[in-house]
Specification:
The protein is α/β, with parallel strands linked by helices. It has two domains: 3-175, Carbamate kinase (3-Layer(aba) Sandwich), CATH 3.40.1160.10; 259-405, VC0802-like (2-Layer Sandwich), CATH 3.30.2130. It contains twelve helices and 18 strands. The strands form four sheets. It has an eight-stranded mixed β-sheet, with helices on both faces. A hairpin with a 6-residue loop joins strand 14 (297-299) and strand 15. Helix 2 (46-57) runs antiparallel to helix 3 and helix 11 (361-371) packs across helix 12. The longest helix has 16 residues, at 16-31. Bound molecules: adenosine-5'-diphosphate (ADP), aspartic acid and magnesium ion. Residues 9, 152, 155, 210 line the site of magnesium ion.
């Protein structure tokens, strides 16, 4: 029988009523003749609570134990979903990551999926099971320990299952009815897109649009998975939601197609650091070993052999970054006068494939922000995106102003 993957995010399984509602959606697809793989998140708020407990217990935690704790939310919803389906007389069984097994590497808290052998689940489908409910976000390392795939990781679980089982489609059910030109929760003028290109969605996701985890888009693009985002709260037709697809399938497009933001960024500056060949490696090597995800980097003009080096990273990695740089300073690998952390910044980005062939987008972005009195602290560009770091208090204003300036409320 054809296989369909259906993923339900946290708000879609937030309580028993919602789980029942989601199970009914699954029932509709089962009735159509699909064998269904359901991927569930933890109940909304659960993973945040678990992460909070870990941070309170051990601020510079051992990532293996972090995974042991934060993976648990999905175990609960997987079991409850299987029970709910059974109550509806649909043969269903739950699977934790290790039982599948969903094999990952050993990069705890940000593990990458290496393999999903389909045999165990397929054997159950052959026996008449109609729904395999799989706990999202988690897997097992080569050492046999539980791993997690990074925040939002259930999206990636879903796409990886769709690829491994050659599913007809991967439907991501969430609390919005599709992918919008920007987060509809902060810009009322955000417009729902019927389709979005893989490349654009990849940029938007990696720049903070949490509607899909970045890695899930990467996998969908690589394995050509038909990926759809839709609401779990509305009755659905077959063409509901937003399809993520290849560029060629999209007829109309704006130069800028989306605005993304990442609220919790930090800007770290090493003041008066000795400037010599190898200095960047001496700074960013230890940071990478400490698991700090450095994003933007600027090195200022040096004077008398000393310079300032600025980089950005997520705010929750500031303590790790400070510790790594302090120990590099203590061991004499680097020599700086002061480390200044500004933890009140956000990143706002404009994304569009059209930027490849049209100039002037950056200028328009800077002018728009300047008209609003927003000071730009750091700028980064690539072929299809422009990002700026600004004070957090201006983030929503900047997103709305850019959405207006690039006329994203109108179809291209
Ligand atoms: P889930 O729990 O279902 O995985 P998430 O909270 O991870 O849901 O993702 C859905 C949220 O993503 C929406 O509620 C919305 O606020 C946010 N979001 C950010 N950018 C966008 C966008 N461009 N389009 C739609 N939603 C977006
Ligand atoms: N529950 C996990 C999180 O909140 C994974 C997911 O929902 O995708 O990040
Ligand atoms: Mg999510």
């Amino acid at each position: 029988m054809p296989v369909l993957v259906m993923k339900f995010g946290g708000t879609s399984v937030a309580n028993l009523d919602r789980i029942r509602r989601a199970a009914k959606r699954v029932g509709v697809e089962v009735a159509k003749g699909y064998d269904v793989i359901v991927i569930v998140s933890a109940m909304s708020g659960k993973t945040n609570e678990l992460v909070g407990w870990v941070n309170e217990t051990s601020p510079l935690y051992d990532a293996r134990e972090y995974d042991a704790v934060v993976s648990s939310g999905e175990n609960v919803t997987a079991g409850l979903m299987a029970l709910t389906l059974q109550e509806m007389d649909i043969p269903a069984r739950s699977w934790q990551g290790w039982q599948v097994p969903l094999k990952t590497n050993s990069a705890h808290s940000a593990a990458r999926i290496e393999e999903i052998p389909p045999e165990n689940i397929n054997a159950k489908f052959a026996e008449g099971m109609r729904v395999a409910v799989v706990a999202g976000f988690q897997g097992i390392s080569p050492e046999g320990r539980i791993t997690t795939l990074g925040r939002g990781g259930s999206d990636t679980t879903a796409v990886a299952f769709a690829a491994a089982f050659e599913a007809e489609r991967c439907d991501i059910y969430t609390d919005v009815d599709g992918i919008y030109t920007t987060d509809p929760r902060i810009a009322t003028k955000a417009r729902k897109l019927d389709k979005i290109a893989f490349e654009e969605m990849l940029e938007l996701a990696s720049l903070g649009a949490k509607v899909l985890q970045t890695r899930s888009v990467e996998l969908a693009m690589r394995y050509n998975v038909k990926l759809r985002v839709l609401s779990s709260f509305e009755e659905q037709s077959d063409d509901a939601g937003t399809l993520v697809c290849s560029e060629e399938e999209i007829m109309e497009s704006n130069v800028v197609n989306g605005i993304a933001y990442s609220r919790d960024e930090a800007k770290m500056t090493l003041i008066s650091i000795a400037d010599r060949p190898g200095i960047a490696a001496a700074i960013f090597g230890p940071l990478s070993e400490a698991g700090v995800n450095v994003d933007m980097i600027i090195q200022n003009i040096s004077e008398e052999g000393r310079t300032d080096m600025t980089f950005s990273c997520p705010t929750d990695q500031v303590a790790r970054a400070e510790k790594a740089l302090q120990s590099a300073q203590d061991s004499g690998e680097i020599d700086y006068r002061e480390l200044v952390a500004d933890t009140n910044v956000s990143k706002v980005s404009a994304v569009g494939i059209g930027m490849r062939s049209q100039s002037g987008v950056a200028a328009q972005m800077f002018k728009t922000l300047s008209n609003e009195g927003v000071n730009i602290k750091v700028i980064a560009t690539s072929e299809i995106k422009i990002s700026v770091l600004i004070d957090r208090k201006y983030m929503e204003l900047a997103v709305q102003a850019l959405h207006d300036a690039f006329e994203l409320d109108k179809a291209g």
